[in-house]
Structure formats: structure tokens, C-alpha cells
Structure to design on (601 residues):
């Protein structure tokens, strides 16, 4: 049987069964098989009559301006082949279309392959736009390798366009022709066109990017210095520097450099690499119109780390948990750190509130120890059994005061029974709160105490209250937090794939940093290399879709996963528990990108 017929049969089985039968897998090219699996897990709507429209396109973008003359010439070269050329952005939305041969236009129009429509793999399945957006690699998809019925007449060759400075994916060029015209010679032709577009993008790079690139090229000439050009979304370095930095996130490095520079003409700072090396760096600002747009960074030789509580390296007291809650670049996190520092440098009480696992104690102790490094900080856990009675609580407090620490920290203030909280408030009102200094943490989503008795206790303590936002409300901090956790627990042994990081950024994290740390430490103990989506818990995997799940969808997914766990993975029993049919359960799992046949339980 010719290969085309076996692929067609495999496709028919996939569409009828909703899964890839094992005996058909050997008929498919590995890259197509992987794309089919992603398409099925994402719930791609392969029966759509045309590509979905998702909005108007920015045809004046840097990508379009660079690609226009290159792809116009390419379309002319392909005119005898009956082919059209499409330009899409990094998210698979079509920006422009060229077709010098009008014979292909009716076929393209039946599919609505035009500006504003999307070829995202998770929406329409395997194709020469969305599959390149997912993998970042060239691919040819021919005939029945497409899952969407309207795409079967096509052969599509898609190639990525990468930013020549930042190297991130910027867009996709796709050539579409009739399936019978497919040729392996088309792929190198398209790769060459992408290289031409990238060259034009470099020529048209913004002044900011050009300044950083020019400074790097001048400094690296001769190869004697280990240097990098760094900016908000720019990182240019040679192999010696990239090998030195390992898996360090570019965002972490830029925040360190930017904070070190401030308004100075030159600054020295330190970067933590792995868990046991600190690299001294010298930073020179690169300016445009009086503003810092980047920096030239010289790297010294790694040295042994020193402790510092508010940098992104493992530091401070020997509590392993202290690091992950103390990194972030969001404005919300910076405001929290700034407020905590100001409060800790004063003489009054400090209260830190926030959801479970946000790093309340870590932030409080780090701020206090930074303000007065030699002071003794006594931490009392109010969730212990001794605090269930007034006598036990007052005895513990009396013992702590007798040891004469500089600061007494009451942890888990919310765990104190209301009657004990009221008695404690009365005692502190009589004794005064100044000797020793008091501080506290309490778990609260709103930042407010749980009961009137707790409100009274917080009022007696007084001082400055700091509320830490949950991780889901500062998603830009999540890559930094995840990287910090891995440096602390995995010592460079594992990294996160782009899909995992995307899932992390979109996950709700009800347990915040504590939940992330617990999960990553468990994975790091059993894995080496790159953590993939398949390694994650099912509810985190489901967040890898480009679409942010609503609160209702998170609740629905949690109910389904709980039912599957209760049923030991039995789909029939789980469907009965949640009150849906088995086919609906499978459809729901597919829509959340959960493999129904994986063993999560």
C-alpha cells in the first residue's frame, strides 16, 4: 500500500477514535506524529469549515516591513507552481498573503487563508503555520498529514523567522500549494527566504537594539573579554558567556544589571550561577536620548557566594525556603519589598499578610536581618498546640521575652483561637509592645484578619502592614521564582521547557510559591535534563494552552481530576461521579490538553 494511503487511513482512525492507534504510529513521520498528539490533546476543531478569524493584523509591524519585498519576490518565483505565500506572527495569526499565480487563490479563499485568520495548531490541528509556531522548526505538511479536512488538498512548507538579535521566534513564512506539487526542494527555498527576512530585520533593527549590538561587537572584538550586550528583551553573547551562565533567565540578568546601574555611569554587581558560583560583573550603561536602553556586561571569574537577602541567589539564614519568595521584577513585588524594607528599618511592629505560601515569613525575616544584621529574631509558631489555650500562649510569650531577642515574630497569627487572640491583645496592651520589638505574619487572601478578636490583636500590635499579592496576580514574576527554586533545589541538573514555563505562568497556584517549590523539588529529585509538560501534574499541564483558563474552568478541571483520582483512573466511573457521559469526559480532558490515557493517578 502506498504511504499516502496509510497516512490517510491513520488520519481516518484518529478522527473516528479521538486517539492515535499504536499500530498506525509507524506510518507517520515523527514530527507529524508529535503534532497530531498535541492537536488531539489541545482539542483542535479539525471539522471547522475555515480558519478562525481572531482580529485585524498589524501590517506596519517590523516583521511585515522586513518581509514584504522578500516574500513578494518569492511569490513571483513560485508563480508557475500555483502557490501562495503567507506571513504569520509568532502566535500563528496570518499577517499578509502573496499569490502571483491566481490559480491558487480560490483554494486559499475556501480555507480563508488570509490576514487576521489563525492557523494555531491547538485550534485547527497540524499545519504549516501553527506547527512551526509550536516547534520553532521548519516543516512540510502534505495532504492527509493535515488533520483539518479543508487543508487536505494542500502541501504546506513552513519555516520560522527568528529575531536576529534576541533570537526569539518572530514569525512564520508558509508556502501553500496543491498537494501533488509538493517537493523536498521547497524547504531549502523557504529557509533561504526566512534568512533574507532576518537579514532585513537586522538592518531595520530599532536604535535601541542597534546600540546594544554595536557596543557588544566593539567590546568582543579580539575575543579577549567575556562580554554580553543586555537589555529588556535583548541578550547578545558568545559561547563562553552562554556556557558560563547556563540556564539563567535573561530577565533575571537584566533586572540585576538595571538595579545595579541606577543612575551611575558604571557599576559592579554579582550574578549567581547554579547553586555554588557567584560571577562578578561590571556593567556599563548604553544610553539613548538620556535613557538607559541596555548595558555592556563584563564577566569576571566565578567566586564563592556571599549571603544577601534580597538578591536572586540563595542567601541569608540557612532556611532553604527563604530564597523563592524573594525574587521578582513586577511593580507589585517591588512595592512589597520596598514597603517591607522601610518598615523593617524603623522601630515599630511589622505585619506581613497574604495567602498561604506567598513567602510571608521569608520576606519578613529577610527584611529584619537586612535592617539589623546582628539582631536576634525569635520566631514563634502560633499554630502549635501550646497556643490553643490562654495560659500556654502567655507562657510561650513570656519565655520569648525573657530571652531578650531584638524582635519576636508571631507566625500564623490566624491560627490563634479567638479567645486566646483577645487575651493576648489585652496582655500586650498592658505590657506595651516596644520591648522587645514585635512582628507577625498571618494568612489572609484579603489582607484582613479573620475575626474581630484577631482584628483587635492586629490593632494592638499596630505598626506597618504589608500585603503580598498572590503569585497569580504577578505572573511576570513566575519565571524568576521558578528559576530561583531550581537553582536552590536542583543545582543546575534540570531546566524547564518553554511549554512548562507557559503552563506555569498561566496556572492559578492556590498554594503560591510553596506549591511551586514542593512540585519542582519532587520533580528535580527524580529527573535530569529538561522538565516537559508530561512530567507535570495534570491540572498544571492543562494551563499550557495559549488561552487563560477562567476560574470556572479551573473548578471544572479540578472536579474532573478529583473524580479520576477517586475512580483510580477509570473513565467510566469518573464520568458517573461528575455526572457526564464518558464521551463528554474525554472531550473535556482533550479541551484542557489532558491525555486521557496517561497514568496521573
Amino acid at each position: 500500500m502506498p504511504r499516502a494511503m496509510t497516512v490517510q487511513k491513520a488520519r481516518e482512525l484518529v478522527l473516528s477514535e479521538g486517539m492515535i492507534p499504536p499500530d498506525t504510529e509507524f506510518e507517520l513521520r515523527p514530527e507529524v506524529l508529535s503534532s497530531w498528539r498535541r492537536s488531539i490533546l489541545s482539542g483542535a476543531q479539525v471539522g471547522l469549515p475555515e480558519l478562525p478569524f481572531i482580529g485585524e493584523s498589524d501590517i506596519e509591524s517590523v516583521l511585515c516591513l522586513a518581509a514584504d519585498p522578500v516574500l513578494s519576490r518569492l511569490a513571483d518565483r513560485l508563480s508557475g507552481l500555483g502557490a501562495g505565500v503567507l506571513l504569520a506572527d509568532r502566535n500563528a495569526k496570518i499577517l499578509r498573503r502573496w499569490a502571483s499565480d491566481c490559480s491558487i487563490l480560490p483554494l486559499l479563499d475556501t480555507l480563508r487563508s488570509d490576514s487576521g485568520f489563525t492557523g494555531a495548531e491547538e485550534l485547527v490541528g497540524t499545519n504549516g503555520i501553527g506547527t512551526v509556531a509550536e516547534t520553532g522548526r521548519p516543516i512540510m505538511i502534505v495532504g492527509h498529514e493535515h488533520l483539518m479536512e479543508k487543508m487536505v488538498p494542500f502541501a504546506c512548507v513552513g519555516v520560522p523567522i527568528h529575531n536576529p538579535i534576541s533570537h526569539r521566534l518572530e514569525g512564520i513564512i508558509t508556502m501553500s500549494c496543491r498537494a501533488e506539487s509538493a517537493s523536498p526542494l521547497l524547504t531549502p527555498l523557504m529557509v533561504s527566504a526566512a534568512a533574507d527576512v532576518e537579514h532585513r530585520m537586522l538592518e531595520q533593527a530599532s536604535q535601541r537594539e542597534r546600540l546594544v549590538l554595536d557596543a557588544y561587537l566593539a567590546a568582543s572584538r579580539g575575543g579577549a573579554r567575556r562580554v554580553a550586550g543586555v537589555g529588556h528583551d535583548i541578550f547578545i553573547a558568545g559561547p563562553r558567556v552562554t556556557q558560563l551562565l547556563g540556564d539563567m533567565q535573561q530577565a533575571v540578568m537584566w533586572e540585576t544589571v538595571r538595579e545595579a546601574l541606577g543612575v551611575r555611569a558604571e557599576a559592579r554587581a554579582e550574578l549567581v550561577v547554579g547553586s555554588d558560583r557567584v560571577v562578578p560583573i561590571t556593567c556599563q550603561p548604553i544610553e539613548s536620548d538620556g535613557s538607559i536602553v541596555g548595558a555592556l556586561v563584563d564577566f569576571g571569574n566565578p567566586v564563592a557566594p556571599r549571603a544577601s537577602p534580597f538578591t536572586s541567589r540563595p542567601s541569608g539564614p540557612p532556611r532553604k525556603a527563604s530564597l523563592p519568595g524573594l525574587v521578582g521584577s513586577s511593580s507589585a513585588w517591588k512595592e512589597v519589598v520596598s514597603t517591607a524594607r522601610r518598615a523593617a528599618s524603623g522601630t515599630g511592629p511589622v505585619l506581613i499578610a497574604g495567602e498561604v505560601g506567598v513567602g510571608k515569613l521569608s520576606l519578613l525575616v529577610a527584611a529584619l536581618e537586612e535592617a539589623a544584621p546582628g539582631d536576634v529574631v525569635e520566631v514563634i509558631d502560633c499554630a502549635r498546640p501550646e497556643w490553643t489555650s490562654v495560659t500556654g500562649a502567655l507562657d510561650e510569650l513570656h519565655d520569648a521575652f525573657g530571652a531578650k531577642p531584638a524582635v519576636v515574630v508571631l507566625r500564623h497569627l490566624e491560627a490563634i483561637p479567638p479567645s486566646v487572640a483577645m487575651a493576648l491583645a489585652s496582655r500586650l496592651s498592658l505590657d506595651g509592645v516596644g520591648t522587645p520589638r514585635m512582628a507577625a505574619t498571618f494568612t489572609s487572601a484579603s489582607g484582613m484578619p479573620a475575626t474581630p478578636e484577631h482584628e483587635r490583636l492586629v490593632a494592638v500590635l499596630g505598626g506597618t502592614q504589608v500585603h503580598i499579592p498572590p503569585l497569580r496576580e504577578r505572573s511576570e514574576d513566575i519565571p524568576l521564582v521558578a528559576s530561583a527554586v531550581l537553582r536552590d533545589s536542583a543545582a543546575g541538573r534540570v531546566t524547564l521547557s518553554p511549554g512548562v514555563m507557559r503552563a506555569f505562568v498561566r496556572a492559578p497556584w492556590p498554594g503560591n510559591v510553596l506549591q511551586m517549590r514542593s512540585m519542582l523539588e519532587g520533580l528535580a529529585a527524580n529527573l535530569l535534563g529538561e522538565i516537559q509538560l508530561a512530567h507535570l501534574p495534570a491540572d498544571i499541564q492543562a494551563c499550557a494552552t495559549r488561552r487563560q483558563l477562567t476560574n470556572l474552568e479551573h473548578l471544572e478541571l479540578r472536579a474532573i481530576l478529583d473524580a479520576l483520582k477517586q475512580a483510580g483512573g477509570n473513565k467510566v466511573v469518573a464520568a458517573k461521579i461528575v455526572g457526564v457521559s464518558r464521551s463528554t469526559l474525554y472531550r473535556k480532558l482533550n479541551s484542557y490538553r489532558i491525555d486521557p490515557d496517561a497514568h496521573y493517578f
About this structure: The CA atoms of residues 62 and 201 lie 7 Å apart. DSSP finds 22 helices and 17 strands in the chain. Residues 305-325 have pLDDT under 50 and may be disordered.
